[in-house]
Design a protein that fits this description.
Layout lengths: L3 E5 L3 H13 L3 E5 L2 H10 L4 E4 L8 H9 L9 E5 L4 H10 L3 E4 L4 H12 L1
Parallel strand pairs: 1-2, 1-3, 3-4, 4-5
Amino acid sequence: MKKSILVVDDSATIRSLQAFILQSAGFEVETAINGIDALEKLYRKNFDLVVADINMPKMDGLKMIEILRKQDAYRDLPIIIVTSEEEEKDRERGLKIGANVYLVKPTDPKTLVMNVKMLLE
């Protein structure tokens, strides 16, 4: 059975691009437009991994990760942050809050797929 991934980004272009890359690598992909949308989808369906941006309206990626990590069901869910925030303090905060991997946009498609596969094995 295909592993399922939730891609969370407020940019339709980025969502579509990441979904295409991950689908091309053999994954089932759904998308969400912000943290609230993502939480609603996560509570309705089990995903094997989440790829999320930080800067989004309504609820940012860091708040979403914080909420997920406080719940037993999502404590071990692999989460990759893909963001334009490239300062070391941002990376440290993202990893401290519970992301497994922190990537900076623009992200090389091979790097994204490699990290997804690594976390799912």
